[in-house]
Write a structure and sequence with these properties.
Blueprint (H helix, E strand, L loop, with lengths): L2 H10 L6 H12 L3 E4 L6 H9 L11 E4 L3 H18 L3 E4 L5 H8 L5 E4 L1 H9 L10 E5 L1 H4 L2 H12 L7 E6 L5 H8 L4 E4 L8 E8 L5 H9 L6 E5 L2 H13 L4 E4 L5 H12 L5 E5 L13 E4 L6 H8 L8 E8 L1 H10 L5 E2 L2 H5 L4 H44 L18 H19 L8
Parallel strand pairs: 1-6, 1-7, 2-4, 2-5, 3-4, 5-6, 8-13, 8-14, 9-11, 9-12, 10-11, 12-13
Helix pairs in contact: 2-3, 3-4, 6-8
Pfam family, one: DEAD
GO cellular component, one term: cytosol
Organism: Weissella diestrammenae
Length: about 450
């Protein structure tokens, strides 16, 4: 390692290199083309940054190109590399989709030594003649198992054919194995395999499963959001489900951010910034959008939907417990989902409840209890109101009866019929006379019926 890097490592308190960082160093320094595999969260970005940057000549144009599958991963890699490139006086430029292409073209005129980009934007710039790669010495393909598939594989093939230089070093990095034959066909070379996936590393990730009905998943997120100092990336299988949950959480006033493919680069950057600085409890995303993301000291990953396969689950889980830190992966689902999960991954899975996850009665449960108390109080208040209204109605009815008895009967008005035991003989006689009089008036003028 360059002595200037060693000094900086001492300043930042970095003492031990990871297995993948040690394993690839010599081959990258000597120009060997490699296919490097290591678990997520083991420092692969620094594994290629430290050996290659000291080989670059300041002021000699574009010599290193790093390709990443997403804007977020490209920007993350850019930030890491800039820290170390500045020590050597090198410039690092991000060329990603979604960003202002005119500004990128203007920045390319300054001929930065290091470029970090997404295949789509790099392909566009190369095809339009805005990016020349004749000075390129090293090509890094990060998350190669994703990039060397379908559309992005075609874009990388076109980029490579514009260079077609067998002396350029190519290094593939990833956590899962790719089709070696396809890589050899595209780049016309045999890669040296460096596999560090079986090397023991200090990983402290707890894998858990929380039985949850589909219509209760959003409620479960709201409960977890009440826990102090709790943050998590929440993974969905579809963007539609993600947006539905985002609407629910927004209605419940839960601070969250969304990372969706297709959003503008500024929107996605803001979402990540809010999550990193703690303004958002949850980062809702899909597998493609969050590939390779590094959130420092992220406490948890939540699988709103069970991962489609073991490889996807591995990459999701790799967002927490990075570089030996503690982390927990929580998967929501039913018994069928639990069986699928056990088939996907060969690790111990703890079936837990919400209370067990929180460890003790925390703000989430307190919030629930407070809600129950408010509900109970509301019921008591309603019952008290009903009693008052009932008493009031009885008093009103009593006053009405008193009023009927005390007021004189108007002409033509028939008093309400009373029970026999309440009518005096005089009242009964008068009522009988009035009834006879009405009948007489009614029959007046009509012919009498013959007997």
């Amino acid at each position: 390692m360059d002595s200037r890097f060693e000094e900086h490592l001492e300043q930042v308190g970095f003492n031990t290199l990871t297995p993948i960082q040690l394993a690839v160093a010599d081959d990258l320094v000597t120009g060997q083309s490699i296919d490097a595999l290591a678990p997520t969260g083991t420092g692969k970005t620094l594994a290629f940054t430290w050996p290659i940057l000291p080989k670059i000549v300041p002021g000699d144009g574009e010599q290193l190109l790093v390709l990443a599958p997403s804007q977020e991963l490209a920007m993350q890699t850019t930030r890491v590399m800039r820290e170390w490139a500045s020590i050597l006086g090198l410039k690092v430029l991000a060329v990603t989709g979604g960003a202002n292409v005119k500004r990128q073209i203007d920045s390319l005129k300054k001929h930065p030594e290091v470029l970090v980009g997404t295949p789509g934007r790099v392909h566009e710039l190369v095809a339009n003649g805005k990016l020349k790669l004749q000075r390129l010495r090293t090509l890094i393909v990060d998350e190669a198992d994703v990039l060397l598939r379908e559309e992005t594989a075609d874009q990388i093939t076109d980029i490579w054919q514009s260079i077609a230089d067998s002396e350029i070093q190519v290094a593939l990095f990833g956590a899962t194995e790719l089709d070696a034959g396809k890589a050899e066909t595209i780049f016309e070379r045999v890669f040296k395999r460096i596999d560090q996936r079986d090397v023991t590393i200090p990983v402290t990730i707890t894998h858990t499963f929380m039985p949850t009905a589909n219509d209760q998943k959003n409620k479960r997120l709201r409960q977890l959001a009440s826990r102090k100092n709790f943050q998590a990336i929440v993974f969905f299988n579809t963007t539609k489900a993600l947006k539905t949950t985002a609407s629910f959480l927004a209605h419940e006033h839960v601070a969250m951010a969304t990372l969706v493919r297709g959003d503008s680069s500024s929107t996605r950057a803001t979402a990540l910034a809010n999550f990193r600085n703690g303004k958002a409890k949850f980062l809702l995303t899909t597998d493609v959008a969050a590939r390779g993301l590094d959130i420092q000291d992220l406490p948890a990953v939540l699988n709103f939907d069970v991962a489609r396969d073991g490889e996807t689950y591995t990459h999701r889980a790799g967002r927490t417990g990075r570089m030996g830190h503690q982390g927990v992966v929580v998967t929501f689902g039913n018994d069928h989902d639990l069986r699928d999960l056990k088939r996907q991954i060969q690790v111990d899975i703890q079936v837990i409840t919400l209370s067990e996850l929180l460890g003790q009665v925390g703000p989430a449960e307190q919030s629930q209890n407070a809600s129950k108390e408010r509900h109970s109080k509301a019921i008591n208040q309603k019952q008290a109101t009903d009693v008052k209204q009932s008493v009031k109605s009885e008093k009103t009815l009593s006053r009405q009866k008193t009023s009927v008895h005390s007021k004189p009967t108007l002409k033509g008005h028939v008093s309400p019929k009373k029970d026999d035991d309440e009518i005096s003989p005089r009242q009964a006689r008068l009522a009988k006379q009035k009834k006879a009089k009405r009948r007489h008036q009614k029959d007046k003028g009509k012919p009498r019926r013959k007997e």
